[in-house]
## 1
Amino acid sequence: MKNIVLTGLAIFACQLTFGQIVLKIQGKVSGNTEGHNQVYFYNQLKKDSARIENGTFEVTLHEEEAGTRAISLEYDRAKRRMYSPVVLFYDQSGKINVTFDIEKGLSSAQVTGLPSAATYFDFNAARPKIYMASRKETIEKFGADALKQDHQDFQSATAYMGAIMQQKNDSLMRAYYKPEKLVTADLLLSLLSTLPESKLDNYYQGLSHEVKASETGQVIKAKLQGMKNGKIGSTAPDFSLPDKDNKQRSFSEFKGKYVLLDFWASWCSPCRASFPRIRQVNAKLKGQDFVIVNVSIDKNKDAWLKAVEEEANPWTQLFDDKLISSALFNVGAVPTSYLIDPSGKIIMKEIGFDPKGGGAMEKKLEELFNIKL
């Protein structure tokens, strides 16, 4: 199974500056914590915590601008339990109420209070239901086995399911679409890999000037452009980014070789888990017309530099301070890798990492260089 992490831009995109936001988060927790009482509130730049006492917790956060904080639990870490964080959106001062059963996990959470936070939560809570409903309809039409890759109806069934999901997600977006609200840009951002480019563009064009000017609005604009630039068969655009020594490096300097352009982040555990295998691949292809270029989507440059030093990968490391991951390549999850041929044409894209190796990207490299990785 491939491992991926949604990009920081997708999860933690910040918004326009409004002056300081004072956010009070109050929680009610049922179930036995077994002494694992800490609740964490974090994004890429900050981390705070509160302690559950007598079934409640409270924390006051001071933010300079609108954005998001994700919630995670000490209980989940202690139990080594898989979880999806609850993400709280805020665009003004106010109170957010969070309730959940600690034994059932954050999947049991409910969010009320600040309208934008409730909207963001309710919208994202509806997304898995769309997937399940679409899958159910597909199975009713084709049978459960049709969704297995080796089934003769796999392509027809997955296309059918994709069309249903697209329709349902479009209906969901219409139900929550308020072009003057900052939260709408974040909802739209979450659907960039789900809706057709034309629909996405129509939603973006309908946003108010202020929402378009927000950081998330700018990310959406960049990603829409990236959808056009990052298609298989298109020529990879040139760009210039700083390396770990703060020297500007142009992508054009690698032209004439096959380039594995690998997008990652210091906080992305699947990305960092991929590096030992990539180092093996790099060693096997030593002497070939092949190079690897890492591009980090970190916002925290110090965290990136620390991770670069820890990993000590023997290839070029670049820091994406110009959002080229969005504007030029439409990276929506990390790790994401592009394989670019010596003429500069994009010939393959792979999202995620298989810890066992042997994925489609490796098979393509084996084919190109007549080598067994």
Note: The longest strand covers residues 17-30.
## 2
Amino acid sequence: MPALSILDLVRITEGSDAGVALNNARDLARHAERLGYRRFWVAEHHNLASIASAATSVVIGHIAAGTSTIRVGAGGIMLPNHAPLIIAEQFGTLAHLFPGRIDLGLGRAPGTDQMTLRALRRAPESADYFPQDVLELQALLAPAEPDQAIRAIPGVGTQVPLWILGSSHFGAMVAAEFGLPYAFASHFAPQQLLPALEIYRSRFKPSAQLAAPHAMVGVNIVAADSDAEARRLWTTQQMSFTGLVRGRRGLSQPPIDDIESYWSPLEKQQVMQMMARSIVGAPDTVAAGIDALVAETGADELMIVSDIFDHDARCRSIELIAQCRDQQDRAEGRSAEAALARR
């Protein structure tokens, strides 16, 4: 099975606050580290009542300080919101504080609405310069040239690994052209997943960072001890997506017994289109869903979103997902041993 990683939304839930969300994220990362997950990422979002990761580099430092081996990073930084020099300084600082553990995923969306975009002082055309900004950031993180006048202190020479994130063909083309690993956001935009992966792999150019394509696939997975309980826990995320459709983005809500009474048929259709790649159920259901997704996409890595209201239930979810991985790895090991024995 491919490596498993986690994207945490650092959700602020009803009845709690941002401090609780940030400490829960660090606790979840510790749990993921013990379970053998490869990475733990958080994302840049602004002016969203239920997400506490706006100051993304600060949150990464908080999580990395509470863990010791798992890679921690941004999934991602919305680069057009920032000068590349600032991001190089921030992530260079993190790389010195936590050597060999920091990832920097880059997106070109604003991570917010148009009004907040203006508050960020972000020009509408900033996204047009995304490829140039990626190259500038990459150069600032590389060893300095002898005559280089502008240096990112302390980012220079850290060569923090860059990732390109995307939910369309554009990110796939950028990642392929620059020879960078690519993460597709199929946990909320699944429609272009397969075409984007094909573009990325077919156009990939080897680079100093990466010799061959490496594709990560984002997927919502909610695991519980029974299918029924998993479906109930999933209603929290379904309600969050319904809020996006309605243009109302409130705090994360506790699960409900009857999601059909919450949304209209049209809202259900829109939400389920965005969540079409989700895997929800008991361990056997989850294992079968993961196997099918990997077989279809050839993913090198899965970035799991397990968006559950209750923190203990979320920890249990990632534990059950890890058990699916371990069982699959043992089965693959037995198959390999049997194949060798037949030779």
Note: The domain at 3-342 is CATH 3.20.20.30 (TIM Barrel).
